[in-house]
Amino acid sequence: MSGSITALTGVTLGALFGVGITLVAWQLPWLRSRDLAARVDPYLRRSRSASLFAGPRAASRARVVLERLLGPVAVRGLSVLERLTGGPEQLERRLRLAGRRTSADSFRIEQVIFGAAGMVIGVVLAVLAIGLRGTSPLLGLVIVVLGVLLGVLLRDYLLGAEIKHRAAQMAREFPTVADLLALAVAAGESPIAAMERVARTSSGALPDEFAATVADIRAGTSVSQALASLGARTPLDSLGRFGEGVSIAIERGTPLAEVLRAQAQDAREESKRDLMETAGKREIMMLVPVVFFVLPLVIVFAIFPGLAVLEISL
Questions:
Q1: DSSP the chain
Q2: Which residues of the chain have pLDDT under 50?
Q3: 92-96: long-range contacts (C-beta < 8 A, 24 or more apart)?
């Protein structure tokens, strides 16, 4: 066992040495590739026509600290994460769909933490496999790398699960919220006041989004743009159609209460269709225990008395 651990230590140190040599070689000036924009950028003047209020977008403090602590390793690691799980724009959109207000850099750091946890678990499994089974140290290194990748992908999978859960929650809340909006508009309130009343008197994911939409409108955003952004930052497709229908009704003067009632009815019909599809899938899954567990027992109970009678007669 001590020999296997020594071999694993040697393989790990050799891999770390190879990674260090590779990083040093990448940073050499004559081996480092620079694109045309990086070569021309020092000789260009910055544009003076930009607005004074549009300052440069700085990186978050967590990313800056991580890059300064780990240097090029952090930059390479974050770039690999971006290639594996999508670019920063796609990640920002997924975070908004999940209802998270954190930045993309914070999520990348969470992925690094999950990857480090997977690496620890992989090292433990590799040591056990080498010590107990006599596995090759190369296979142990593969287990460690696989643990890191699974940890990173697990955090991305959990984000997708959050988006699906939030979409299901909004789908359950949408018909009731649309009915409340229709009642408030039919009572004489404006659409903005109706959304504000629903956001103030209700709780859930959808009322929170309505509160954010009302805040955008109060800040100066037009009603159509605020409703369009409501559909863009929510994972429910019916909310996008809801925002378009309400904005068109406001522009053309269509009775808004009727539009909201129609939207609520469409949402209920869609939920019924989803429920029927789920029931059909569950019905097929219920056949598995019937065929593999209940039916063999029925056959045994049906055949066993006949076999017993035959044995007695013999």
A1: -HHHHHHHHHHHHHHHHHHHHHHHHHTSTTT----HHHHHGGGSPPPS-S-TT----PPPHHHHHHHHHHTHHHHHHHHHHHHHH--HHHHHHHHHHTT--S-HHHHHHHHHHHHHHHHHHHHHHHHHIIIII---HHHHHHHHHHHHHHHHHHHHHHHHHHHHHHHHHHHHHHHHHHHHHHHHHHTT--HHHHHHHHHHH--SHHHHHHHHHHHHHHTT--HHHHHHHHHHSSS-HHHHHHHHHHHHHHHHT--HHHHHHHHHHHHHHHHHHHHHHHHHHHHHHHHHHIIIIIHHHHHHHHHHHHHHHHHHH-
A2: 47-56
A3: 93/233, 94/159, 94/160, 94/163, 95/159, 96/233
Into which CATH architecture does domain 168-271 fall? Up-down Bundle (1.20)
Predicted structure pTM score? 0.62
pLDDT at 122: 87
Q: Where are the domains of the chain?
A: 2-26+62-167, 168-271
**Cβ–Cβ < 8 Å for 67, 75:** yes
Q: pLDDT (tens digit, 9 = 90+) per residue, 49-88?
A: 444 344 445 556 665 665 565 555 555 666 666 666 666 7
